[in-house]
# Entry
Amino acid sequence: MFENELKKEIDFLLDKATLLEVKEIENDLATVFNKVTTENEISSQIKEAVFYILSELSDNVKQHSKASKSWILYNKDKGNIIILLADNGIGIPAVFDRYFPDLDKNDLEKVREALEKGVSTKGEGRGYGLRTVRGIVEATAAEMVFISGGVGYKITKNKKDPLEIDVAGTITLIKIPVDARLDSSQFYKIIEGRNERN
# Structure
């Protein structure tokens, strides 16, 4: 039942989202970031966190998704900054299958691996962006829905619920409270991977 309601919310938000050119995604997301930071009174640390989130998600779309289309929505609703980024790409499970064909994990485990441990196709010291996005969400008492290849999680500070929703590509929906706080030292600990609670 919860998943049906979530699918309706995602569909509703996608109908309001702006179609992006994947090859121009960084420029388009910079415009969204500027809108976020000028239209809302949010702390400089949350602005930095939002910029990081948008940068990481757009980088993943451009480098890994093989998407032909992407959508972005920024909105403020009920005290939250709402960010939705979606693409029609191959999804994390297919990326795992391509780069790690011997990995014996189901699709949900592959998504969990990307969100919890980070995975790199570029070598050591890379591939921690989704893990860091998850850390920011937890540290700011935000909410994140991440679905890729039809499976994913709803993540809050103290909870991670698995999801199975029939959607193509990858969808990231983040709701950050407008009054959220994140001090600089905490933010950099998250980026450096020193704030892990797995």
Q: What stands out?
A: The chain is about 45% helix and 25% strand. The radius of gyration is 16 Å. Residues 2-191 form a domain with the Heat Shock Protein 90 fold (CATH 3.30.565.10).
